[in-house]
Amino acid sequence: MTQQEFQWMGRTIRYAGVAKAAQAAGRSVSSLPYVHRILLENLRRSQRAGRPVGERDIAALLEKGDAAELPLFVSRVILPDSSGLPALQDLAALRSAVDRVGGNVTAVDALVPVDLVVDHSLQVDFWGDAAAEERNLARELERNAERYRFLKWAQQAFRRLRIHPPGTGIIHQVNIESIASVVVLETLDGKEWAFPDFVIGGDSHTPMVNGLGVLGWGVGGIDAEAAMLGQAYIFPRPQVVGVRLSGRIRPPAMTTDAALLVTQKLRAAGVTGCMVEYFGPAIPHLTVAERATIANMAPEYGATCGFFPVDEQSLAYLRQTGREEDHISLVEAYCKVNHLWRADAEECPAYDRIVEIDLSEAEPSLAGPRRPQDRMTLAGIAEDFREKLTLPLSQGGFGAEAVEADPAEALPGHGSIALAAITSCTNTSNPAVMMAAGLVARRAVERGLTVPAWVKTSMAPGSRVVTRYLEKAGLLPFLETLGFNIIGYGCTTCGGKSGPLPQDVANAIERRGLVAAAVLSGNRNFEGRIHKLIRANYIGAPPLVVLYALAGRVDIDFDREPVGLSADGTPIHARDLWPTPEEIEALLPQARDRDLFSAVYGREAAGAAAWEALEAPAGALFPWDRSSHYLVEPPFFEGAAGRDPVADLAEGLSKARVLAAFGDSLTTDHISPSGEIPLDTPAGLYLADAGIAQKDFNTYVGRRGNFEVMTRATFANIRIKNALLPDVEGGFTRHFPDGETVTIFDAARAYRAEGAAAIILGGKEYGTGSSRDWAAKGTALLGIRAVITESYERIHRANLVGMGVLPLAFRAGEGWRQLGLTGGELFSFAGIEEAVRTGAPVRVTAKGEGGTVEFEAVPQLLTEAERALIASGGILMHVLDAFSPASGSNGMEE
């Protein structure tokens, strides 16, 4: 590759030229989507560095056609503690395994910069008062001290790992406000090189940084581990869908409403697994904060990313957030010289297809009660809730019995809001919607409105910057008066760590069978995720969260009914509280003060002192404690010697039973829950048997370092619906051939003892939601050897491959129901070896009481690299082989 140069501040900067690379391949750079330009730069620069990238890889990117694999080398990895700790735990276990076979343990290291933000362990234990933040942080540090000591060990053990302690903020907002550089400047072979800031993250909402012009997306922790170790991140060449945004967001709609509109339309347009790139006349009018709100929802519309190329708005945001002027000038100079700067928002490269979205169609909306793509305008919420209330579960309802509303009860009736949370993910990065929430609160307090006692209110900003500007604007006291006190900084209610409900409210829900509601400003509302007792969950803009909290119920028509009554009995309507665009705009300069960002990110986080006080082990090897119930050495590297993984897979699948069967849109939250650990579940009983009090169970996130807990948690979400038991919710199944009802964990153990493999049947969009590696790890540890569905979400499918579980798909138009399968059959699979070697279909035979069904299932192994991973038994075995002395390699690439 011929390097190119440009002058910046009197220095010669080298770069891998995108235009020349495209020209060499017979393409014009102007025809390439910007995401392809960044990937092309990555491939060309990697070629120059001597990495295993060839001309065929360049051609695979630039030529439309069959799926091809791209060997990418990312600039950095970013992780929350929820997926980061298990990833680092795997690396620690890998070091132990390498040590046992006499290898060089220090070769197992992070070769790219890794940022781990401790943000997913905060829980709303305390709320509604000024001490809530301090008390929640103290409880977090107490509850997770053992996990955090491990992270401190990892920080000294792995050379390019940086830990951001509790109290810093949520990973995505910290990323765009502080960590992301847009352009990286690095010295290679004594010369300065500039290249794009290209990141993968262990959280599915990593695409939020796309709003700044940084290409990044979420991966499972398994892929993140390989990238950290310097391995090529093998990525299938994606379709790029151009989304032309036109129109303006018209008040009273907010950016959140536009994001929900985009989510609904793109999910309907079928962009799953595609890269989305935005262009069109609306682009110049969208700030980075607004773009980030839309980009954050990429997992909800199913895309790999939702990318906004670098332009003047990107520079403005870097300036607002306190980045150095020299660096901002580098971003501009490099992006312009290397064709990564978008000067014309209506420029339309050669996208695979184009989707048109008019932002003026956005209206004040909520999405729910179970999925983020199910958007409804406010006028339709009440009617939809009432329709679903008594519908059976099988028809998408709640299957509830009618009850009379009782004002004397702790929770009056169906539809009463038990939780109202302004949460960190998606919206608190957007000052306009946060100022709007504060203005609604101010008007409500000035008119004497209060939030009903049964509503648990909380506010968890994505960074401490939000608190500062709400204080400067004089709005924080009004939010606090309504109970929206700061409870901490991190992923809480949106990720299932909403904490306990008041006991009298919880008792009323259980005693009367109430369908309680939650309203939050997050991005996910899957049933069973937010709180185990709350079945109707809605997401929307922060000011709407405040409005619904004041109303205390979700089945309200704001056009006709008042939010509440003032002290003198005057009805107060939503329109009386809603701010004007001019009022919001007048306050935004408070949030654009670069000194504010410099002050927040220039100081230690609130939890830094306690973090530093934690004592932690030192050395290259982690000292595993056999008595621990938080950090248990995982079993992934055991029993691998002398085994042929493909032959083992084929032998196992010669006799298989269906462990569970599911319909469409099964989420990774259903497969591997993140919130509270109920006592009456396999995981809860395991902890209780170990002598751990229920109050100390922590959450599933907190116990992700214990494979015994997480295996028992797999498919154990209390709201999961296994079609083998259509009238039962929770982690239960039927054991065959006797048909006995048992837990999924017990059935898996029984099948293993009987010498039968376990399989899963699913519908469309299997594995939507979070990039949760334990959804695949737990699947593998249950003894599940294959999953057969109609379609997969990208990250979970890749994670299954990474754990050596074979993902299969029914032929188009077929599914387990369409084929007449009941789940009670005995399955056998033929052609496994050929399927792994070439991707050929697998022949499946299912013998049951009703006869025999034969069909073909197509391996969802999209690249040669994925077939190699399955042949190795998964990525962890593949990496262990690379580090063993027999391989003749230290497994690493500098």
Automatic annotation (TrEMBL):
Cofactor: [4Fe-4S] cluster
Enzyme Commission number, as recorded: 4.2.1.3
Every Aconitase A/isopropylmalate dehydratase small subunit swivel domain range: 686-811
Keyword GTP-binding (UniProt): no
Limits of the Aconitase/3-isopropylmalate dehydratase large subunit alpha/beta/alpha domain: 69-552
Highest taxon above the source species: Bacteria
UniProt family annotation: Belongs to the aconitase/IPM isomerase family.
Protein role: Catalyzes the isomerization of citrate to isocitrate via cis-aconitate.
Transmembrane region(s): none
Name of the featured protein: Aconitate hydratase
One Pfam family cited in the UniProt record for this chain: Aconitase_C
UniProt pathway: Carbohydrate metabolism; tricarboxylic acid cycle; isocitrate from oxaloacetate: step 2/2
